[in-house]
Amino acid sequence: MRTDDRARPAGIMTPRQRRAAGLVLRYAALLALVPFFVGPFLWMLSVSVRETGNIYSLEIVPDAITYRWYAEVWSQYNLDRAFLNSVLVAILQVGSNLLFCSLAAYPLARLRFPGRRLVFMLLLSTMMVPFQLYMIPLFLMSLRLGLFDTLVGIVVPSAAGAFGIYLIKQYYETIPGDLEEAARIDGAGEFRIWSSIMMPLTKPAMAALAIFVFVQSWSNFLWPLIIVNSEDTWTLPVAIAKLSGDFIDKTQYIAAGSVIAVAPVILFFFLAQRWFIGGVTLGSVKG
Amino acid sequence: MKSSAGRDSQTLTAWAFLAPTVIVMGLFQFLPILGAFAVSLWDYFPDSPNNRFVGLRNFSRVLHDPAFWEALKNSVLYLLVVPAIVLLALGLALLVEPAIPFMNAFRACYYVPVVTMMVVVAYAWTLIFNTDNGLLNQLLVRWGVAERGVPWLTSESTALWTVMTVTVWKGLGYYMVMFIVALKAVPKELSEASRIDGAGPLQGFLNVTIPMIWPTVTLTAVISSISALQVFEEIYMMTNGRVGTTTLVYDIYTTGFDMSRGAIDFGQACAMGVLLFALILGFTTVAVRRMQGVYSAN
């Protein structure tokens, strides 16, 4: 091989050299793209720690760093309350989706009963309807039911969803039947079979669903914007949008608030990356 | 007899499991969906004495409203994010597909915008696209590319395109993952066989890989068109519908909920929702047919 190399005219590479060059180019492209995807967040972070006066100057790490915008936006602009609300909404929404979707998916995957296909199709059909079509009647109903300006009102329209049912149902279908047959022969009731045998086996799908619902709930904007009125029920996205909609310039407050709003999710993402991305792939298997 | 009793009890069990979900989704998803079609035919406001059935009048008012046509035009224009998303996400997937050291870290970086809320993404990009003190204009001026700042978000000719780039940017990581999964499923023997047949890498990619991953291309195109037609948060945060950037959903929102823009009209907003639904359904049906036909014809 070595002699071959030397015999070649200059400028033409051996396959091995070409592969190495390809690898170098690939890493160069990979590295070059990192600032493209992370840069906007870093710039926002940089803006959020600057003193007034030089908030837009072109340096990533400013000379004087201050954290006071974080403290002030947290206590003076009600972000502490918005954060708490976002946490409560996320807990409610993840909890109810896990429970409802798991309960509904079980008979759809494992039991035989008339109307099974029809119910599944009907539930699935909600995936085709854009939320913006029915948000107005939903809003009018929520007014009547006393859900306006409440945290429960934020959660209820997405307390269960077709995607979650589909995801868990797919997973139930991969479990072999012998287990539940054995339990049935032992005289266990269907609810026992579900709660102590079947449901625990779907943990991977439940984890993927939990993360999917959490991200959705944490980012959800249009419905909370509509159904919430007073500052005490704002969630983080609503609080940040309202802050940025003010006429007074609050750049650093909004930047600091934004960092507070996304930091937990991004940290959580880097810790549990596999699970975040698993949801996408589980969901797109059959499409 | 016994087996039929067993089946009955299984039916009962099944419905007991389904009941909570059926009730919640029935009440808060199905009922309002039906309600939307109903309200679109009414002049409706809660507790108003003037509520009455008006037939298709809301639709005719929407269709005679120039603001609606402006929004529709922008929403259709917004579909241009779809080819951008498909091509760039596929390119990104090809870049990150090989299992070489640190690849997971790179993939994770590109995926960060996906897990970040759009409200914050839009704000972060506003800090970059601001005319006077945005990062981009500062750099352009310093490097001598532009003499003064480009009004990215404040001029009719650029604002919608600027917001569209943010939509593309935020979604790339998600569609990249879908393409990685699809690329992994392409059998290595197939691309090797095409290479033995003397095909170059590009030919192999076009003749082997693309047909193999075409279902994912179709799925990606459909999902991204549905969300493109529903775009709202970027617009709300970055331009607030100014300088010719209203879209259908933005128009529905202002018609139904924004009191600062004049009288609220639920009936008309619902009629626009019905039209949006029809547009999404029609467009995706045609798109799926067309795209499925590409490789099944030969």
Which helices and strands occur, and which strands form pairs?
The complex is a heterodimer of chains A (287) and B (298).
Chain A: H1 2-7, H2 15-48, H3 68-75, H4 79-110, H5 116-125, H6 131-144, H7 151-155, H8 162-173, H9 178-185, H10 190-201, H11 203-219, H12 222-227, H13 236-245, H14 251-271, H15 273-284
Chain B: H1 2-39, E1 42-43, E2 52-53, H2 57-63, H3 66-78, H4 81-96, H5 103-115, H6 118-129, H7 135-142, H8 159-184, H9 188-196, H10 201-229, H11 233-238, H12 248-257, H13 266-296
Helix pairs in contact in B: 2-13, 3-12, 4-8, 4-10, 5-8, 6-8, 8-10, 9-10, 10-13, 12-13
Report on this model:
The complex is a heterodimer of chains A (287) and B (298). The longest helix of chain A is centred in the N-terminal third of the chain and has 34 residues, at 15-48. Chain A folds into two domains: 2-66, no CATH class; 75-284, MetI-like (MetI-like fold). Chain A is built from 15 helices and no strands. Chain A has 287 residues and is mainly alpha-helical. The model of chain A has no long low-confidence stretch (mean pLDDT 89). Chain B has 298 residues and is mostly helical. Among the domains of chain B are: 2-39, no CATH class; 79-246, MetI-like (MetI-like fold, Orthogonal Bundle), CATH 1.10.3720.10. Chain B has helices spanning 2-39, 57-63, 66-78, 81-96, 103-115, 118-129, 135-142, 159-184, 188-196, 201-229, 233-238, 248-257, 266-296, and strands at residues 42-43, 52-53. In chain B, helix 9 (188-196) crosses helix 10 (201-229) and helix 12 (248-257) packs antiparallel against helix 13 (266-296). The relative contact order of chain B is 0.12. The mean pLDDT of chain B is 91. The chains are: A mainly alpha (287), B mainly alpha (298). The interface between A and B is large, with 89 and 95 residues.
